[in-house]
Amino acid sequence: MSSTPLPPEALDEWLTALADRLQLDPADVPVGDLLDAARDIAHNVARPAAPLSTFLIGLAAAKNGGTGTDIEAACAAASELARDWAPEKL
Question: What angle do CA 11, 51, 89 make, to 5 degrees?
Fold first, then answer.
């Protein structure tokens, strides 16, 4: 396993390979929206919340039809919640 960050073109290659393995069309993956949501969540909630949240975004999008629009809507909802996140103090 490499600790060197992937250059953008390698990320595209990885996402294309993973989409193929998962029998998805890479064109249906709004990469920018997912990365924006992950950033908002990591910065405003917690870094470990980002991958878990993108998983939930995918589940919600699939449940609601699985289109690019469904993914974008789930990303927008997650980003909005993350930007406004202020957990209750225990």
Answer: 145
Q: Is the pLDDT of residue 89 over 60?
A: no
Structural tokens at position 9: 């073109």
- Ramachandran class of 65: left when φ > 0, alpha when ψ lies in -120 to 50, beta otherwise: left
Alpha-carbon span 8 to 32, nearest angstrom: 12
pLDDT > 90? residue 80? yes
In the structure, what pLDDT confidence band is assigned to residue 70 with cuts at 50, 70 and 90? very high
Is 70 within 8 Å of 61 (Cβ atoms)? yes
Q: Which residue has the tokens 């789930």?
A: 74
Give CA–CA dist 78/90, Å, rounded: 23
CB 16 within 8 A of CB 26: yes
Structure tokens at 16: 């294309």
